[in-house]
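Exercise 7b. Backbone tokens:
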């Protein structure tokens, strides 16, 4: 079994690399967040065996990293990831002209202001209460439950908890049902912060592939049956980052397999409402069994600044969640809940606005990529982004080169468990067209730099961060 460091490096991709180049690759992994501060790295001897290199080479790699402050070494304590004392987040170096494609999110819906104004009397009526709302406001839980019911998963307010966003919801679920040392199935690629959360709760990650054409359902089913994981984290609707949607025909099979193996299905529906022109509407996975725990959010359909999310689960799980929740928060802000109630009464208008904005963003990305030779944009029916095929394993290098042109974008491996998918790049379709057009021009310039060899891997990796 290989170490996480070598999984992230990719043994084949660093074959023959010099010690300096290897140190540069590891620095990039640290700055990218794929290796976490404090994480223990393999010993020099173990790393040499895994990479099939000499002990002197791996010793030199760690010497270089220690000299720059990226690892700390202690007798008997091994080698651990660190950051230089003078380290400053790369975002702090960016000026106002930089375009950040690491966040795939739109600005607020035009109806947000009016919904806020309409919500104020509702908020004023709550001034006589304690202000704490562990479950969430009954009216909002009713509205979320009704939305599930309309989509084909009959739901009551008692099966809903309101949270401070979907990531907050995921962390609450993991804090409640998590088991350190157990297995967790995750898609490859997937939402990076979810990977970090699942890993933080001590799970061993088992990846199952997803591409723009969808899931390898045979692989996923076999993985569930053979490994019998404790949890499986899936994004079945407009998958982040590929944009794929799990077919209706596959949903009951996956749900039944997970039920038979005792696996908790954690389904992330943050992107479920981001339809442009898919042409069909799938049933929520929640419709196929009580073992399905669903998390969702208003952040992508209303505004990222409004931290409203939810959990849908069977009542026994809801009771467990409520018992754990006070250990790290006592509820979700009431103002945001009042606003969300107003917005959910206007879902047709809200989704129409989202559809229009995403269609315009998609068109702008497609037009920009037509100017970049060798890059292919797949069909994108909705969701946050296009999962672009670069035609060559240069994603990290392109990400580094883009920074020289004021463009911040994460490389394909940022969305994986093992440093793979260097041919892929996630490009959000959520920015206004004019901003997207400028971003695509900067990407074109970076692509030219990479193709012409103006960005050296050895020179660029140590000084650039990918986030």
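Sequence design result:
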């Amino acid at each position: 079994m290989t170490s996480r460091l070598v999984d992230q490096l990719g043994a084949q991709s660093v074959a023959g690399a010099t010690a300096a180049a290897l140190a540069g690759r590891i620095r990039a992994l640290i700055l990218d967040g794929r290796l976490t501060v404090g994480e223990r790295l393999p010993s020099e001897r173990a790393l040499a065996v895994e990479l099939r290199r000499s002990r002197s080479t791996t010793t030199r790699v760690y010497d270089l990293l220690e000299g720059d402050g990226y690892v700390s070494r202690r007798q008997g304590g091994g080698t651990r990831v660190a950051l230089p004392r003078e380290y400053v987040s790369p975002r702090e170096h960016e000026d106002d002209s930089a375009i950040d494609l690491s966040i795939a999110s739109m600005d607020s819906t035009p109806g947000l202001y009016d919904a806020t104004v309409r919500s104020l009397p509702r908020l004023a009526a709550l001034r006589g209460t304690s202000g704490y709302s562990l479950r969430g406001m009954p009216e909002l839980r009713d509205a979320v439950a009704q939305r599930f019911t309309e989509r084909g998963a009959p739901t009551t307010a008692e099966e809903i908890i309101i949270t401070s966003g979907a990531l907050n919801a995921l962390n609450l679920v993991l804090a409640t049902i998590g088991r350190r040392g157990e297995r967790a199935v995750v898609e490859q690629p997937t939402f990076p912060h979810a990977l970090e959360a699942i890993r933080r709760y001590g799970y061993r990650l088992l990846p199952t592939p997803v591409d723009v054409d969808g899931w390898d359902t045979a692989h996923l089913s076999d993985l569930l049956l053979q490994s019998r994981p404790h949890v499986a984290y899936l994004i079945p609707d407009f998958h982040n980052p590929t944009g794929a949607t799990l077919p209706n025909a596959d949903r009951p099979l996956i749900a039944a397999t997970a039920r038979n193996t005792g696996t908790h299905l954690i389904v992330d529906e943050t992107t479920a409402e981001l339809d442009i022109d898919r042409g069909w509407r799938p049933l929520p996975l929640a419709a196929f069994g009580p073992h399905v725990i669903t998390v969702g959010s208003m952040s992508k359909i209303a505004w990222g600044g409004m931290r409203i999310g939810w959990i849908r689960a069977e009542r026994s799980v809801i009771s467990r969640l409520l018992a754990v929740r006070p250990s790290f928060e006592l509820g979700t802000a009431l103002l945001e809940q009042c606003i969300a109630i107003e917005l959910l009464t206007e879902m047709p208008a809200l989704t129409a606005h989202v559809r229009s904005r995403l269609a315009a963003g998609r068109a702008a990305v497609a037009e920009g990529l037509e100017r970049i030779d060798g890059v292919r944009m797949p069909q994108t029916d909705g969701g946050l982004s296009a999962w672009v095929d670069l035609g060559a394993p240069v994603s990290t290098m392109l990400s580094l080169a883009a920074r020289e042109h004021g463009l911040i974008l994460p490389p394909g491996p940022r969305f994986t468990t093992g440093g793979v998918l260097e041919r892929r790049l996630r490009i959000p379709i959520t920015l206004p067209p004019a901003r997207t057009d400028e971003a695509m021009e900067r990407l074109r310039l970076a692509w030219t730099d990479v193709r012409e060899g103006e960005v050296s891997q050895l020179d660029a990796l140590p000084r650039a961060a990918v986030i």
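Instructor comment: Residues 449 and 455 are 6 Å apart (CA to CA). Confidence is low (pLDDT under 50) at residues 455-467.
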